[in-house]
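Write out the bound-state structure for zinc ion.
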Amino acid sequence: MILAQTNQNDDIFGGVNDFFDSGLWIAARNLTLFFVVIFWLATAYWVYKDARRRIDDGWLVAMAALLGLIPPFLGPIIYLFFRPPEYLDDVRERELEIKAMEERLARRDLHCPVCRAQVDQSFLVCPVCTTRLKQACVKCSSPLEALWQICPYCATPVATPSLPGLDDTLSGDSWTQPAAQPRRRSAESD
Ligand SMILES: [Zn+2]
Ligand SMILES: [Zn+2]
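---
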């Protein structure tokens, strides 16, 4: 409409036409182009930053950054469809939480059968009531589980009667009782 008017009235609108042609129009076009390029680079940078937080592999991060750059504005949208759903930090944090929870659950089951005191998996004797919890391997002194027939650490067969300090001081089934005699403690310490 402006162009039609300037064609009809050259002497009045000629200056306005020139102004739009040379000055403001080109400036506005350049400014728009400038902002489009800035926005293009910003989206590509965002893709790179986001990919680095989600992808562990360096090559895949580089490919994602290239995708954010090369089809301008379309690449970031394609990336949004295929990016991993979680941040690496969140994945690591969740794995740590699961591990800690598993450790907590495993530890909760380990109690002395007599006094219910919390005991470690490597304890041979309950430190509170001196109840014998596990046998020690005669060769390497590793704690042995009740059902083990052979020491898994040094391959020595488990021989229950030959354990020193068990059959001479703790006779029969009395060693499972919580009676804490000072005689027994001294016998087990050797
Ligand atoms: Zn105990
Ligand atoms: Zn052993």
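---
Helices lie at 2-8, 10-54, 58-69, 74-82, 88-108, 182-188.
The chain has a mean pLDDT of 79.
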